[in-house]
Amino acid sequence: MRRIFHLLLCLIIPSAPLAAAEPISVVTTTADIAAIVKAVGGDRVAVDSIAKGYQDPHFVEAKPSYVRIVNRARMLFNVGLELEVGWLPLLIQGSRNPSLVVIDLSPGISVLEKPSGPISRAQGDVHPLGNPHYWLDPRNGVIMARRVAQELKAVAPGETATFEQNLKSFENDLSARRKRWEEQMAPLRGTEIVTYHKEWEYLMRWLGLSIIGYVEDKPGIPPSPRHLEQLVQTMQQRKVKALIASSYTNPNAPKSIAEKTGTKLLVLPTSVGGEETIRSYSELFDAIVGKLVNALK
Amino acid sequence: MNLIRKGIFYYAICCVWLLSVPQVSHAQLSEMESLKALVRDIGERLQEALKRIDQLEKEKAANRDSVAAAPVVPTQAEPQPVQATGPAPKGILNSFNPAISVNGLFGGGYSSRPRTTRRLTGLDFQNGFNFQEAEFQFTADVDPYWKANFILAVNRAGNAELEEGYVTSEQLPYDLLPRDTSLKLGKFFAGFGKHNLLHAHQFPFIDPPLVNQAAFGDEGLKEPGVGLSYLLPTSWFSEITFQGLAGENDRLFRASEDAKPRGAYLGHWKNFFDVSESTTLEIGNSYVGGRSSYAGHRLSQAVGVDLTIKWRPLRRSTETGLIWQNAYIFFQQEQNRDPASRGGGLYSSLQYQFAHRWWLQGRYDLLGVPKLDDGRKHRWTTLVALVPSEFSAVRLQHSYTVQDRGGPVNQVLLQLNFTIGSHPAHQY
């Protein structure tokens, strides 16, 4: 009897620390949030991202395999502001996971382009809650990271010190890099550019570049020939230095405009994973700023 | 902070000025000494306060430097402290209203045999233009436990019908619903195969597959009932569904609307695999059976299998994609005759998106495997769609049907399919 008791004890005792060491299962809607969660959570979290960094986050398909991922997750972080409205509700409802903690990271962000008057679909794919591409400003990345840390601490209070330490390292690193990026971009302040979609507002406001036009005359709607003609004229008159498109944009229209106007076409990643070398949140801005400086200098 | 500093400074000046006014009497002199001591004390306290203000200002500047705006482009407001609040609040009344949407189907067409086309397509067809259908959808959370969905369809004649009206739940009080399980109650399209779950505005082609129509009728298999679906603990997506249904379908179960439904039950097993990042494979198996209301109350049933392959490259997800869908259904309808009507059929369809706004599609239908009483039918369908946005589509479809009994039928259909309002996203 005593032997059996000892045997049971040996089986039970080693299993306790193992169970305690199990990382928090987190799913994020975008790769940028995943990178921030990984930076703050370290090895205390296991993170999956639904959208890949080279994918348009507006148009993710709600595959049942994603339902499976959400079903197994403990926490879900999303961008909010209705960026994921076309697919995230299906995943959450299909997951049948009532204990899932869903965190919208947009509260606390100074949201740009909140509609001040009536809106309708005649204006294209407008976001009624404002422009959701706020992660493209590293200052907002800090706000997101703080919120992530706050939520992780709530779920795993025993790991508070680890999360706070990781958050501090993330903030310090980003702050140092931000100063460098701002110095690199300082001579280019005020440069006029044109972008394909309304997704670069946060980035350009941070860096001080001036967006004077869009290839899409209405968000999410392919441009009309008349609009393109006017845009080409404007770009030629104002000698616009660069046309910026995301890596998932169909390059045909931007290429054609760039050729007509002699403007540089600059394809930028919008998210972590947008290019193979971009594996962290700060590397995303390393890549963007590097490309901007090379193109606009 | 500067305002406070200025206030303290002027206050101190006033004190010093008042106390430095020339005095005359001894009593006044001693009082003066005590006041001077008081001023010295105030001065020391003032210095301490100013030091503290300087320290706070330095801390604030350091904090701003670590997070906030760039020194040269202060275009955005300072980042706000984290708040545990939701999205921007709307009006309370609006927040609790259901999301409402309307789908309109307006069409036109020509058929070499209009009556046969009505029978083959299930559409209220006539040569020329016609209003096909409008669907009004209302969705909202009832409370933390239930989500409600109502779809009201109005046809060309203006007759309204509750197409679906149900609630779903993933969580109930006292944990009555096990984890990984969802519950559905109400009137809904039964979970048989892929096509039966779709509303008319979601049909990949303008008309339904021949075999679905032959097995379940023009309206599909929609029944009052209750359903449970469960996610199996597998490494891939595997879902099993059981539904208890009223058994009202007039093809499978009921002689007329007056006949008493005798109940039916349905099982569906869906498996989904990511073949690659861009390609998925879905395999489904379905069964539905129930006692017929005809004399003898024998078992009427249908069994089906479906296979769908989808390809959509993530880097160009709005520009191109391919869907290949196949289904076979065998059915046995116990009606007022002997032997029962038995038969089966299949379809195979291909939908190819070749540009942002353009789709090209084809479908082959074969009805009569095994053969039905009226023989076999073959139908070839092609469709081209212009999709200006995700809320509207113009589709032109041609079908050619060959049947064992009756001559061939050529038909051309045109449809404008549009959505207004807040329409929930469609399932994958």
Task: Summarize the structure in short.
The complex is a heterodimer of chains A (297) and B (428). With 297 residues, chain A is an alpha/beta fold. Helix content of chain A is 46%, strand content 12%.
Notes on the structure:
The complex is a heterodimer of chains A (297) and B (428). Chain A has 297 residues and is an alpha/beta fold. Chain A has 2 domains: 21-108 and 119-180, Nitrogenase molybdenum iron protein domain (Rossmann fold, 3-Layer(aba) Sandwich); 184-296, Rossmann fold (3-Layer(aba) Sandwich), CATH 3.40.50. Chain A has 10 helices and 8 strands. Chain A has helices at residues 2-20, 31-41, 64-72, 88-95, 138-155, 160-185, 201-207, 225-238, 252-261, 281-296; strands at 24-28, 45-49, 75-78, 101-104, 192-195, 210-214, 242-246, 264-268. Chain A has a 4-stranded parallel β-sheet, sandwiched between helices. A 4-stranded parallel β-sheet of chain A has the order 6-5-7-8, sandwiched between helices. In chain A, helix 6 runs parallel beside helix 10 (281-296). Chain B is of the alpha+beta class and 428 residues long. Chain B has 2 domains: 1-20 and 32-53, no CATH class; 100-421, Porin (Beta Barrel). Helix content of chain B is 19%, strand content 45%. Chain B has 5 helices and 16 strands. A 16-stranded antiparallel beta barrel of chain B has the order 1-2-3-4-5-6-7-8-9-10-11-12-13-14-15-16. In chain B, helix 1 runs antiparallel to helix 2. The longest helix of chain B is centred in the N-terminal third of the chain and has 42 residues, at 26-67. In chain B, 27% of the residues are buried. The interface between A and B is large, with 67 and 58 residues.
Per DSSP E runs of 2 or more residues, the count of β-strands of chain A stands at 8
Strand content of chain B: over 45%
Tally of helical segments of chain B: 5
Strand order of the largest sheet of chain A: 2-1-3-4
- As a whole number of angstroms, the C-alpha radius of gyration of chain A is 22 Å
Mean pLDDT of chain B: 84
Beta-strand portion of chain A reads 5-15%
The largest chain-to-chain contact, stated as pair and per-chain residue counts, equals:
A-B, 67 and 58 residues
Structural class of chain B, by secondary structure, is alpha+beta
CATH third-level topology of the largest domain in chain A? Rossmann fold
> Distance N terminus to C terminus of chain A?
81 Å
CATH fold-type name of the largest domain in chain B: Porin
